Amino acid sequence: MKGEMVMKKDLDKVIDKILDKYPAKVMKNRKEHILIKDANEDKEMSANTRTIPGIITNRGCAYAGCKGVVIGPIVDMVHITHGPVGCAYYTWATRRNKGKTREGSQNFLNYSFTTDMQESDIVFGGDKKLAQAIKEAIEIFNPKAISIAATCPVGLIGDDIHAVAKKAQKEFGIPILAFSCEGYKGVSQSAGHHIANNKLIQEVIGTIDIPEADQKQFTINILGEYNIGGDEWEIRRILNKIGYTVNTTMTGDAEYEDIAKAHNSDLNIVQCHRSINYIADMIEIKYGIPWMKVNFIGIDNMSNTLRHMAKVFDDEGLTARTETVIIEETEAIKEEMKRYKSMCEGKTAMLFVGGSRAHHYQGLLREIGMETIMAGYEFGHRDDYEGRDVIPYIKLDADTRNIEEIKVAKDEKKYRLRMPAEKLEQLKKELPFNEYQGLVVDMQDKTVVIDDLNHLETEMLIKALKPSFFGSGVKDKYIVQKMGIYSKQMHSYDYSGPYAGFRGAVNFARDTAAGIHTPAWSYTIAPWNKEPILKGKIETEGVEEVC
Ligand code: CFM
């Protein structure tokens, strides 16, 4: 039945049926990536390991994580893809992170820059072409800074992008950041996040100081927020209304210099833990800014986040404004939310997205009466499932060791404690400082958590659990819709949004209610409804039984 919760033993059967489809070795592997939530049992989740060749995964590559996710959204840099045009195209325009042009500044988000490597470059080397591309980009666009992202062939043929960058930086006098984020560098885009984080802390953050006289009160950085569908703008609208100054967002709608100034803030709040936790940790060690986990998705999550922030600053006016804004904003959307809730109540959802959204959206779905019966990440690590407490126990494999683990030290000149150490210790007891508890803890009992979900599993799980909503990626969206189930592409919001904050919540509720109730689904026939159903009759002494 659509929307009904399935019993645990039935769920076990569904999972067994899926695993049965695999050869023994694959089955053993996949089994470790699937768990059924049971509050009485702590189960280890296998994550951040290689996808088995041949399996249709939804994951992306290290280049996508570095250029496409973390570095790409910086608006006033020219981002050059050193590689084949296909890699550049993949991260161009179809992207959904929005950015505005500041007065007197530039915005290159709509451009795609690439060295367009050809066979001859692979044979004879592509570094000259790269040097030429940098020169042309500077002559034509005169950007404040440039990034170079390496794709697979660059690593294979051994182009020294760092030498090219260094030389060009000297010649042209602007920062040129080279990222060795070849697609194959890790098991997923997660490796690219790490590579991007390393370079930003080594070469950008901390390079521009805000003079003390210009320092504002209640200054924060938002980390791990990429302004998909304008989310950051909605979050910023609320924060400004309360009285915060957002110094830097990493990296949605950010300018290069914003990131260079990040060390001047009082607090780092972390939305997407997976993509930016390295920077959050390193900024704390180097500059003394503490970080706290937040969630801007859903009314309760947003309100709690704002209250947590107010507690950190412990200012009477700020706390009072926080409450006023929460009331104002919730009141404004109350009626509409109620209406959409009445349309979605009792329906179920499946979420399979990246490394954070499959968790962040569960609260908002619950607010419109929908329970998440299956959730998983494409590339989350064990800590994104089980919480940061497991970090010391994560076995580092060769793939993880492949990514440089940099160590930063206290910057003696720029380090300063944002509050007395005792106060921070006290706050840590009640607020999520340096803490992320992961996805599993928030799931209901007898729901499925699944890592690196593939297409076979998607189809079989949908067929068995029949959700009304599937939060998907790029590759699985239309397969799901062809099954007659509403699917929202959670990486771009299908160009809707914003979904964060209060106004975002109502946008999401509206889209979900409309998506579920569109008559379009009655025109599709799910594959299982096309399968022939065997019918027969048994005659027993004149009584007909139909089976
Ligand atoms: Fe973080 Fe992101 Fe995500 Fe992510 Fe991504 Fe993304 Fe995502 Mo697509 S940084 S983990 S690598 S919130 S691009 S903006 S939507 S898979 S859940």
Total DSSP helices: 23
Mean pLDDT: 94
> For the terminal residues, how far apart are their CA atoms?
20 Å
Helical residues, percent: 40-55%
Bound molecules: FE-MO-S cluster
Q: Tell me the strand percentage band.
A: 5-15%
Q: Tally the beta strands.
A: 16
pLDDT < 50 runs, ≥5 residues = none
Basic shape: globular
Radius of gyration from CA coordinates: 25 Å
Q: Report the major sheet.
A: 6 strands, mixed
Order of strands, main sheet, comes to: 1-12-11-10-13-14
Structural class estimated from helices and strands? alpha/beta
Give structural attributes.
single chain, 547 residues, alpha/beta, 6-stranded mixed sheet, 4-stranded parallel sheet, 23 helices, 43% helix, binds FE-MO-S cluster
Walk me through the structure.
With 547 residues, this protein is an alpha/beta fold. The chain is built from 23 helices and 16 strands. The strands form four sheets. It has a six-stranded mixed beta sheet with strand order 1-12-11-10-13-14, with helices on both faces. It has a four-stranded parallel beta sheet with strand order 3-2-4-5, sandwiched between helices. Helix 10 links the parallel strand 6 and strand 7 (245-251). Bound molecules: FE-MO-S cluster (CFM).
Explain briefly what this protein structure is.
The chain has 547 residues and is α/β, with parallel strands linked by helices.
Helices and strands, with pairings:
Layout: H1 8-20, H2 24-31, E1 34-36, H3 62-71, E2 77-82, H4 85-90, E3 113-114, H5 119-124, H6 127-141, E4 145-150, H7 152-157, H8 161-172, E5 176-179, H9 189-204, E6 219-225, H10 231-242, E7 245-251, H11 256-260, E8 267-270, H12 273-287, E9 291-293, H13 299-313, H14 316-344, E10 348-352, H15 357-360, H16 362-367, E11 371-376, H17 382-386, H18 398-401, H19 421-430, E12 448-450, H20 455-465, E13 469-472, H21 477-482, E14 486-489, H22 501-517, H23 527-530, E15 537-540, E16 543-546
Parallel strand pairs: 2-3, 2-4, 4-5, 6-7, 6-8, 8-9, 10-11, 10-13, 11-12, 13-14
Antiparallel strand pairs: 1-12, 15-16
FE-MO-S cluster (CFM) is lined by residues 65, 69, 189, 224, 226, 228, 272, 274-275, 353-357, 491.
